[in-house]
Write a structure and sequence with these properties.
With 167 residues, the chain is of the alpha+beta class. It is built from three helices and six strands, in the order E-E-E-H-E-H-H-E-E. The chain has helices at residues 36-56, 98-102, 130-155; strands at residues 2-11, 19-22, 31-33, 90-97, 159-161, 164-166. The chain has a four-stranded antiparallel sheet. The chain has a two-stranded antiparallel ribbon with strand order 5-6. Strand 5 (159-161) and strand 6 (164-166) form a beta hairpin. The longest helix is centred in the C-terminal third of the chain and has 26 residues, at 130-155. It starts with a strand and ends with a strand. The mean pLDDT is 79.
């Protein structure tokens, strides 16, 4: 399941690792990178590990904010301590496949399910593994439902940013 979240990339040349990355939608989120490529890779890895951890522990992952409503200045997690070069700092969406971080680590529970008679996996015309199909499909549907339900509630509320309302 692909998910995408906005991240803020703060650049400070006085630091040995100049990029400090944070995700405004996740509390206490941060990682670092040596250059832009490393920073993007570290951000992707952070999002994958922590998104998977949220799901593994039964927590809802937060709805992603729109990139247009976040800013380096207003979403600075340490406004008194984090100094940055506004010319080289930037915001970007970070994309990750959560399945890659969940694969092989998810706990599987045995469940008894009822299906419509016409969906008979024992039918010789269909070559499908019902357990594998359900194990792959249900988590994707759950993540999709969590994100679309939470995001649609979030998106329906207008946001005021930089002197304009966003709907």
């Amino acid at each position: 399941m692909l998910v995408s979240y906005p991240a803020l990339f703060y650049y400070d040349s006085s630091e040995s690792v100049p990029f400090f990355i944070t995700f405004p939608d996740f509390k206490n989120s941060s990682t670092q990178g040596k250059n832009v490529t490393d920073a993007m890779a570290m951000a992707t890895d952070w999002l994958g590990i922590n998104g998977a951890d949220y799901l593994e522990n039964g927590h809802m992952i937060p709805a992603p904010s729109a990139l247009a409503v976040i800013s380096l200045k207003q979403n600075n997690p340490y406004p008194n301590d984090l100094h940055y070069d506004s010319e080289q700092s930037f915001k970007s969406m970070v994309l990750v496949d959560l399945e890659a971080y969940l694969n092989g680590k998810t706990k599987v529970q045995k469940k008894t399910v009822s299906i419509s008679k016409w969906v008979d996996w024992n039918d010789d015309s269909v070559q499908a593994n019902s357990s594998a199909t359900l194990t792959e499909t249900i988590p994707n549907e759950k993540i999709h439902t969590m994100l679309t339900t939470r995001y649609s509630r979030y998106a329906s509320q207008p946001k005021y940013f930089d002197g304009r309302w966003f709907y």
